[in-house]
Amino acid sequence: KMVSQNTQISALNTNLSNSTAESVASKTAMNKKNQELSDELKDKGDDLKSANAYVKTQQAMETARSQFTKDEAEAYQQGGNLVIRLKQINFASGRADLPGASLAMLAKVSNVAKSMNAAELKVEGHTDSVGSESQNKSISEKRASAVASYFKSNGFSDVKSEGYGFEKPIATNKSKEGRAQNRRVDIIIIPDNST
User: Fold this and answer.
1) pTM for this prediction
2) What is the DSSP string of 101-135?
3) Which residues on neighbouring strands pair with residue 3, listed in sequence order?
């Protein structure tokens, strides 16, 4: 009788041991599945965030395009950023102070940047090739800085500026029209995609 009870106890211990092993394996499998689902959900969340940022940039680009005539500025996407290429700031020759007539155009850019919840603005100054390289580099830096100061005084804290002189022409410098196109300010709006 004692042997029979020992056999039963041994069988129960084996069953309990097998049951515990199955439970651990089941729990491990369940944890792995939960982690896979969690990772998949995070990926989908990242995709949704990226899609929302893209839509926001597209909407801002359309708003920007509707704000400016083709002669004033053009807006285009560069990666996840919006570039507004201002064509008519019309700085006086050799000067870097903002012409009063350009303030309305800069206000439009400011509104677009605010609508995108801009994290950062970059202002790039460009010139034509008339004059020396050092003169053009210096005046383009001063002009970019003047535009950047406008944005800083209008509530944007992270504004960078850089002058390129005539390093990055978008048209020929051999014609009056081409030189006019090369004298420009590009404003790069970097949106805050954390929201």
Assistant:
1) 0.71
2) GGHHHHHHHHHHHHHTTEEEEEEEEE--SSS-HHH
3) none
